[in-house]
Amino acid sequence: MSKIKTLKNVDVKNKRVLVRVDFDVPMDDKLNIVDNSRIKGCLSTFEYLIKQKAKIILISHTGRPNGKKDKKLSLKSIVGELGKLLNKKILFSSEIFGVKVKEKIKKMKFGDILLLENIRFWKQEEQNDQEFAKKIAELGDIYINESFAVSHRKHASIVGIPQFLPSVAGFLLEKEIEELDKILKKPMKPLVAIIGGAKIETKIKVINKFLKIADKVLIGGALANTIFASQGIAMGESKIDKESFGEVKKINLKNHKLFLPIDLGIWDGKNVIYRDVGSLQWFEKALDIGPKTIHLFNDIILKSKMVVWNGPLGLIGQKPFDRASKELIGVIDKGGIYAVVGGGDTNAFINEIGKKEIFNWVSTGGGAMLDYLSEGTLPGIEALRE
Q1: CATH classification of 7-174 is 3.40.50.1260, yes or no?
Q2: Which of 302, 317, 350, 372 has its CA 20 to 30 A from that of 166?
Q3: Who has greater pLDDT, 29 or 218?
Q4: Kind and range of the H or E element at 194?
Q5: Closest Cα partner for 198 from 177, 170, 219?
Q6: How far apart, in whole angstroms, are the C-alpha atoms of residue 247 and residue 227?
């Protein structure tokens, strides 16, 4: 398989450079950015392009507007934060192709940055419309993919534009590949994978992959609830995904590497209690793993040299059901273990409790991270090879 080219492999001096970034950042009701990590992750690429005197045209999305314009999802809200981080005026265009944009780019000085409007306001983006991709490609001389988090999507700005321009990976995408390849190709042993969250259908492949390459696979969250319910174990009012019962059959639940919770943190409508798996009453909800499971998982993690974690082990937005996820982070910190984490909810949680620095790598992708770990590549990465 041919290696992908990266930013250092291409001459960008005095060129118009299209950079696909992911500025889908969390905002409050007043459109203030709550977490700017994804913007910060791209700064080294922007700084390099400014130094190289390129005209920088940024393509991004935020939210899911489904091909319709929505003021609340306009990327105009990003301009101030990006300008502050770069100490530079950022230009903005409410259009993403056509004569007006071309005129704006023509007037740009080398080193200037132009942010285009939310590309998902146009339905052709998610349809991977080739004419649409070609029109945007006309704005630049070179394309850079700096959006790992959406590189698992076959969208026009991810796989379409590279068909019309020389295309390379930005520094952040390059680093994502490098870090995730350490897990896939040269893992430190013992390697432990921790898989939580809710969407089981997105995690079947990665669970099966880790049952091959990892030493232990620990399952928690609503994911575990669904697995138990599919086996006929009473889970009361717990969150389960009945439609995924068929998917559970694709996992070898008897594999000696696989560890499921043995007890659960329960809400009975009034109090938090702990029960062994299989003893829930009809009105109870499992919202976290229990102390016996926490002890078991912690013991396994402390004996590992590398941990990869995607998805919370409990309902982290509601105390005390963030207990297991917090203790997990404490054990990783205490053990000095090489740890990689990813997934929107998990990343937001570690940022909120101020523990980001204990991880060796925090992936910007959730679904993209899972797809890369299970497949070893992504459509957006393959588009850079062609």
Answers
A1: yes
A2: 372
A3: 218
A4: strand 191-195
A5: 219
A6: 9
